[in-house]
Structure formats: C-alpha cells, structure tokens
Amino acid sequence: MVEYLRALAAQRLPWVLLAGSALFLDVCALFFQHGLGLHPCVMCIYERIATLGVLAAGLLGMTDPKRPWVRWSAILLWGYSAFTGLQLALRHVDYQLNPSPFNVCSPYADFPSWLPLDQWIPWLFMPDGDCSEITWQFLGFSMPQWLVAIFAAYLLVCVIVAVGNLVKGRCCQ
Q1: Nearest to 166 by CA among 68, 33, 93
Q2: pLDDT tens string 108-117
C-alpha cells in the first residue's frame, strides 16, 4: 500500500486530478458569483485563495512529480492550503451559525499593500457580501459547511500521501 502511494504521487495524473478538482471549485465559485449573483464575503475570498493554493500545488506537482523536491514542495503547499482553508471554512461556519454583533468578519479583504488583489482583479477578489448570511444551501448545508468537508478531504488525502512518501520503500527512490 505504501509503495502504491509513493508510485501514485510520482505520476502526473493524480496531480492533474488535484489541480482539476480545485479549478472546478473555483469555476463554481465564479459561477455562483457572476452567474447567480451571489455576493462573496471576505471569508469566501480567503477560502477561494486557499483553493487556488491547492490548484497551484497540483500544477507544481504535475511539472515533474518524479523529483522528490518537486513532489514534496507540492505536498507541503497542498497541506498548507488545505489546512488554512479548513480553518477559514470553520471560522466562516461559526459566523453563520452564531451571528452576533461581536462575531462578525471584516467587510474588507486584508491583502498586503504589495499585493492588493481586490484592486488588481476585483471581479475575482472583491468581497461585498456578509459572512453571516446564508444565501445558498444544498442538502441542508451552506457553502462554508461544504467547504469544511472539501478542505478536510483535501487535508486527509494530503496526509495519507505524505505518510506514503515518508516511508521507505522499493519504489521511487
């Protein structure tokens, strides 16, 4: 099993699937925003950036997955993005389930002055929604609740792949 995981992480297809799944989520977010007219809040924008981090990890991993330093860089970026996205989604769910005047998110994205994404690409990174408002549900779960499950799945698979790559085996040495 461990050798299978190591061999799998050294192939391009799993990295393409990782990047494709993250790209699908970002395209869905843009459809909700521009197609259905749902306004993203600042937490939605941060979660979108975490998903873009998973996409970048997939793209990095597919460049040359047989090289350990490329594979490990992609795994670390994937894990960091999934963990950060999970934290953001959990905080967003808290804003929705426990709304109060003292439990609110900022109305403005806090990007560094050297990277004002909301000014450079406003159609992608400009928040104008309310974090505590539930504007969409599927099967009784809001979008941040779905993102908790998605980021948790990303993180779980990342940990399994990382453990599989840590254990010495006959493959991919």
Answers
A1: 68
A2: 788 888 888 8
